[in-house]
Amino acid sequence: MTDDLPHTDWIDLTQPFDGDVPHSAALPAPELETINDVDRDGVNAQWIGTPTHVGTHVDAPRHMIADGATIDEISLERFAGPATVVDVAREESEPITVAELAAAADDVRSGDILLIRTGWGDRYDCEEYKRYPWLASDVGDWLLEQGVKLLAVDTPSPDRPRATRPDGWDEYPIHHTLLSEGVVIAEHLSIPASLAGTRPTVFGFPLSLRGGDGAPARFVATPTAAP
């Protein structure tokens, strides 16, 4: 019986999803349509059409690595476990350095999920959301050194926004560094300030799309980390 289950405080880390979610100009907006109506048809049903990289989602290595693993090939263990939550709050679109991240993430452990809070998730419905802070190019190597298994950010990407890239900029250094080593990336999370400095247990299971380069996911956290 459900009354016998231990009480758990669940914290939703997922941004709401609809046809107006922020998305890259390179991708179409998702579409939602009611195709059956309960008053007319006896049931309600919706049709959903969406790119794999809008809303809260996970990037599989196949997203940018030609022979990388697809989302359905990745072990479920990769998407759940103890996490480190770091707060590197920003008011401007600017880089986050290795030194700053290392100071804020002094308790990160091998095998952790790393949640990076910039505060930008609070601007999800604002125009300025697309001009977000990003991780400096060498942060990817630092993350590999720490043994992080999943990187999750409250921005559209851990890499520099398209709107602020200078000529000749390597478009996706963090993506290439992590995905080439099998470290998955989650984007567009909502990470509350109350989680900063804690070690919750995080679950973020994506849809098992066959051959998928990524997939929408529901991310949640519980306050106490698993052993």
From TrEMBL:
GO molecular function: hydrolase activity
Keyword Hydrolase: yes
PANTHER family in the record: CYCLASE-LIKE PROTEIN 2
Pfam family, any one: Cyclase
Origin organism lineage: Archaea, Methanobacteriati, Methanobacteriota, Stenosarchaea group, Halobacteria
Taxonomic source organism: Natrinema soli
The name this protein goes by in its record: Cyclase family protein
Entry EC no(s): 3.5.-.-
Top-level taxon of the source organism: Archaea
Entry keyword set: Hydrolase
Root EC class: hydrolase
